[in-house]
Amino acid sequence: MIESHSKNAKRAYREFEILTLVNHRNIIKLLNAYTPQNRHTELSDIYLVTERMESDLLRTIRQEHGHKTISYLLYQILCGIHHLHKAGIIHRDLKPNNIAANSNCELKILDFGLARTEDKLMMTPYVSTRYYRAPEVILEF
User: Fold this and answer.
1) Cα separation of 110 and 123, whole Å?
2) What pTM, to 2 d.p., does this model score?
3) Which residue, of 2, 18, 123, 136, has the greatest Cβ tally within 10 A?
4) Marked catalytic residue, from 45, 93, 111, 119
5) CA 6, CA 43: separation in Å to the nearest integer?
6) Of residues 44 and 119, more confidently modeled
7) CA torsion through residues 49, 121, 75, 95, sign
8) Which CATH number fits the domain 2-140, given the four candidates 1.10.510.10, 3.40.50.11890, 3.30.450.20, 3.40.50.740?
């Protein structure tokens, strides 16, 4: 149980750290972070408050959309990834559930719990959700 809390704490801190570094229209915006504990020695929970999005990419692409809208969705994903890579950030768990959407078909990449920055060269063997792994990653296992 302690190991699980430690892993979740590291992921939450990593997400907080990365979201404070990036500012892009296709990356979820961090509005606030807080903890209900009174002292840092009691820290066991952290809440990250982000802008509100209504759906995820999977639900959005299941709706009836024309070629222009689908192209715009793809363009937004690529813009967000490009911005992350220029900032030296690798997401490592990009999948439809980690891309939020609103009613205007504006997309935001989220869930940076597994992300790494280039300066943190130590990569863990767990990279992404199994069904979204790149073929070369699967072949390494």
Assistant:
1) 20
2) 0.78
3) 18
4) 93
5) 11
6) 119
7) negative
8) 1.10.510.10
